[in-house]
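User: Hey, quick favor. My workstation is busy. Could you predict this chain's structure for me?
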Amino acid sequence: MRKLFVLFGLSAVLLAACGDGEGGSVSGYGSGEATGSGINVTGQGRVYGTPDTLTLNLGVSVLRETVNAATDEAAAKAEAIIAALRAKGVAEIDIQTANYSIYPEYDYNGDTQRLIGYRVSNNLTVKIRDLAKAGEIIDAATAAGGNDVVVQNLAFSIEDNTALLEMARTAAWNDAEAKAEQLARLAGVTLKAAISITETINYNTPPVYYERAMGADQAATPIEAGQQEVTVVVQVTFGLGA
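Assistant: No problem, here it is.
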């Protein structure tokens, strides 16, 4: 069962207090009057969950003297990488071509340029769902690609984060409502229903760096999922009464 931890953050601004002249000001928050005024508060809910998916870009970048040589070599190595991924249990639907390019490379010396060769890049977006085998899978794929392999943009995620979002949203609302109620009491006014609500969702996952374990007798490269932070921030304007 996924463990979730909820933290709360509070911030609010009292825009104005309405009433019959008895609504007091709140030091540090400001005060005001007039019909239609309200309390604008920001509520934050933060939850943590364990990622269950790793997405990365994996491919080859081959430089050869001719286009044909470069395309042939890149194709062979890309096929070897895909075969290695499939052999380790990565589903076909989780392997997608993300980029394919061919361009000449030159060596520049002053005002002159010399053609070095042609570079062919073939990059895949790969999803790994068995995180316990992530290091083993990546090592096998990079070994298949050899010295021309490219691994980048590793990122963990939670495939279905509906429960996390609901918890963070509830925490953010409770945070905003509690702050608004406190400010209304301090100002001597009555808190009414929300007039407007806006929501912002943020995901924070630490970056993942990959360095292949070298040597056939070495253990697979360790890949640790850690935890993913999901934060919901709501800005709510509550109406005020006397």
